Task: structure prediction
Amino acid sequence: MFGLMMHRPLLVSSLIEHADRHHGDTEIVSREADGTIHRSSWQATHHRARQLANALQALGVKPGDCVGTLGWNHHRHLEAYYAISGMGAVCHTINPRLFPEQIAGIIAHAEDVILLADAQFLPLLESIAARIGCVRQIIVMGVGPQLGASTFPLLEYEALLATASARFEWPELDERSAAALCYTSGTTGKPKGVLYSHRSTLLHAWGVALPDSLSFSARDVALPVVPLFHANAWGFPYAAALTGCKLVLPGAQLDGASLYALLETERVTLTAGVPTVWNHLMQYLQSEGLKLHYLKRLGVGGAACPKTIISYFEDVQQVTVLPGWGMTETSPVAALTQPKLRQAGLRGQERRDWLARSGRSLFGVDLEVVDEAGQPVPHDGATFGHLQVRGHWVCSGYYREEADPLVNGWFPTGDVAIMDADGFMQVTDRAKDMIKSGGEWISSIELEQVTASHPAILEAAVIGMPHPHWGERPLLLAVLRPGETVTTEALRSFLEQRVAKWWLPDRIEFLESLPHTATGKLNKAALRSERGL
Result:
């Protein structure tokens, strides 16, 4: 017997319809390429998304077609999110920080029929034109000078919308239909496509908005520093519409001064991004002696959150830091470090140590840590194992690849982790980055965290070096803060007081900078390659 309840499919278009109907006058603030501020609303965003859907339909885009986007966080990109998915096409967000050959490869693999691109990326697209013959048209997002000669037929976004009607009925799609496509960053092999459904996208938005997650509400002002091309900006564009909060889109300017100006003038209460961005903001605030007056919650993901960031924002700025864990394959948010009753009273160093964890599962996601035989390891906060995940917004396979990535219904993440009795998980390393010395494991992440807690160190990376007796030993690569100095001996002495003796690096090198991937993570593959490891 079935229940007698209405059934409506879970669709991306229902989010923008809700935001328009119930929060229509709530602001959408967007910083343009020239630094000027554009002010809109959820009602206007819905209006323009329907115009864009009509325009794309007139250009021959059909349900199931992939439409690529190559742009920063601004209101036109947000409109494209809803127009493309809402009409039944697939919104393929492309990371411009990938290598040109990778960008060409994923556009060709997705068979994007149309691209929406910021003007600054046109030279990049011209350079790979011969490899992306699937693209019929490029729509240039933004207002600027007349479009010049191009290999591609070019259309200007605003001119296109000016000719399009806003009368468009969003189709009632099967909620399992593809809504968006995002490729992994390609740090291990070629990028792989993760194809999100309408259902998974909407459920993920609900999960992100929960009080024990990022806690979105209609009273918040949310600023996604994480790019719209990075795993759907961690659900911010969807969770903001679901709750009707004010949304602030920062454009391409993510330096400390530019972010601080937006955080203060727009009275932002919630933001999220990778540790690198918060490191830059922290340095700017420290150097200028500035205070954050409105920010309440700061999400950190994409890499382990350094304890220096936790200490500064929590203790100095009185901002709640929310470390989380996820990956492109998990939409991406799967775990957040939000306290249970047992942790709610933690203060000072106890709280900072606890915040070093990667988080606990949101409803809709299961996490487990298993041994080499696939059996769960004890949840004792000490036993290492391989992290696996399953859930409503976890991928079951890669786009146009036949190989099944699942193991007994679970997705193997490639991370090594521990889990405690309260269900809090801590990623200790990528499996490929763990250092096995004399048969014992050394966590490169933990050694990096301890090193970065030294006041003279800006950033650190640890990789394994072959050793004739121990198998592998740690090599520590460190970047100094501007104007700071520390000797190798002094840094080693600092580490001796904080880690086991056999964890101490055999070598320490100081570098001007460390390489990062297209998503802001330390590029350890590049570090190994430079040293022939």
